[in-house]
Structure formats: C-alpha cells, structure tokens
UniProtKB/TrEMBL annotation:
<dbReference type="Pfam" id="PF10400">
    <property type="entry name" value="Vir_act_alpha_C"/>
</dbReference>
<dbReference type="InterPro" id="IPR005149">
    <property type="entry name" value="Tscrpt_reg_PadR_N"/>
</dbReference>
<feature type="domain" description="Transcription regulator PadR C-terminal">
    <location>
        <begin position="93"/>
        <end position="173"/>
    </location>
</feature>
<dbReference type="InterPro" id="IPR018309">
    <property type="entry name" value="Tscrpt_reg_PadR_C"/>
</dbReference>
<protein>
    <submittedName>
        <fullName>PadR family transcriptional regulator</fullName>
    </submittedName>
</protein>
<dbReference type="Pfam" id="PF03551">
    <property type="entry name" value="PadR"/>
</dbReference>
<dbReference type="InterPro" id="IPR036388">
    <property type="entry name" value="WH-like_DNA-bd_sf"/>
</dbReference>
<dbReference type="InterPro" id="IPR036390">
    <property type="entry name" value="WH_DNA-bd_sf"/>
</dbReference>
<feature type="domain" description="Transcription regulator PadR N-terminal">
    <location>
        <begin position="7"/>
        <end position="80"/>
    </location>
</feature>
Amino acid sequence: MSLPHAILTALLEKPSSGLELTRRFDKSIGYFWSATHQQIYRELGKLEAEGLIRALPSEQPARGQKKAYEVLPAGREELARWTAASQDPKPHRDVMLLRLRAAAVVGTEGLEADLRRHRDLHERQLAKYREIEQRDFPPGKDGPEDRLRHLVLRAGIDLETFWTQWLDHALSEFARLPDAGDPRQPGVREA
C-alpha cells in the first residue's frame, strides 16, 4: 500500500505528470521506494478513480498531451492518516545473505568476486548520497521540511555505510578461508 502514498507525497510536494513523477522517483524517492513507469501510471489511475487526486485542467487540449495531477483534500487526509498509523518493521530479506548461507554447504565459487562487486556498488551509492547531502543540505538549511528530508537521506547514508563496512568484513573472512571453493575443506563449518 506504500506506492500510492509515495505518489501522494510527491504530488503534494509538486503537482506533476506521470513522466515527471517517474523522473522524480529516479532522482529521489526511488532511492528508498522504487517504482516503474507502468506502476506509477497504474497508481495514478487508481488514485484518480478513488477521488484522491485529479488531473489539472489543460491550457490547450490536445490528443496525447501529458496530464499533470494534484492531490485533492481526500488524498491529503489519506496521506495524513497513513503517516500517523503505526506500522511494524518488515523482516529484512537480502539474497546475498542467503547466498552466503548456501555457500557453507555448496562452496563459494564466484561469490568473493560478487562480494567485491557489491562492495563497489555500495561505495558508489554512498558517494552519490554524500554528494546529494552536500548539494541539497548546506549548513543553515534546517527548516522542518528540510530536516525531515535530510533524515531520510541520512538513513540512506547510514545504510550504505553499514553495507560497505559489512562487505569489508565479509571479504576479510573470505581471505581467512582455507579453500573458499570447497565446503568440505577443514575450517568451513556448518552454521
């Protein structure tokens, strides 16, 4: 149920067309809540049918012209209700962790290289988040909306920092394995 709320949030920040929303998801919201172009358009149709948003009147009606949407009072109320509601954290699911567990019984062939690749990807994402932080949150930009948006970005920075540190640790463990490719070798234990 969160994609509709992500769209309501984005539209309250700035009325937008589906294409503009897709671009904004790619540049900001998508870092923590991704959606495809098709998912966004499908949700816009549902939100409009539910009376939570409306298409803004077009200055020049033309076939195929993009529609911009805005949030209606019912949409703002729904977003406020959802924001105030209690939600439990979701269990963390990560395929790399499952692959490491499987490696304990079938061997680690190819896994170290992928750990290094993941480490590089997380390091690049961390650099991107730090660049956004420097650009969008200079000293003195500390209004309530800015502080909450910065808090979301800090979560991304902290998560990427965690993953880069954890992957460094995982790679150091790999270096200590006697024969990383064969789970039957001594030193590779079942968990």
